[in-house]
């Protein structure tokens, strides 16, 4: 199986009312390297044509990589999803 196929096996309960990861766009804009755009294993951070980072928390694997690699304090407010929400890993 490819990585994409393996990720597709997981199940997600997306919390539409409360994002568990929130991006501060102002602080994020001051980041020159934007490592989140290539470190997130689920590719949830993407670069728009204008250089802004686009982020969607649906599909988050709750790995914490974005929090670890982000060089800008306060750019990413990170938490786990509320109870009953988030990823359910299957086959590992
Ligand atoms: Fe991506 Fe992991 Fe951050 Fe979720 S916690 S957005 S999967 S890097």
UniProtKB/TrEMBL annotation:
UniProt keyword Cell wall biogenesis/degradation, yes or no: no
Domain 4Fe-4S ferredoxin-type: 19-50, 51-81
Keyword annotations: Electron transport, Iron, Iron-sulfur, Metal-binding, Transport
Keyword Iron-sulfur: yes
GO molecular-function terms, A-Z: iron ion binding; iron-sulfur cluster binding
Protein name per the record: Ferredoxin-like protein
Biological source species: Pelotomaculum thermopropionicum (strain DSM 13744 / JCM 10971 / SI)
Gene: FixX
């Amino acid at each position: 199986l490819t990585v994409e196929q393996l990720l597709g096996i997981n199940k997600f309960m997306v919390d539409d009312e409360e994002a568990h990861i929130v991006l501060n766009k102002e602080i994020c804009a001051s980041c020159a390297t934007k490592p989140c755009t290539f470190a997130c294993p689920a590719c949830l951070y993407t670069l728009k044509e204008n250089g802004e980072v686009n982020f969607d928390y649906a599909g988050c694997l709750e790995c914490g990589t974005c929090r670890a690699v982000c060089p800008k304090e306060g750019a990413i407010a990170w938490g786990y999803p509320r109870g009953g929400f988030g990823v359910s890993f299957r086959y590992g």
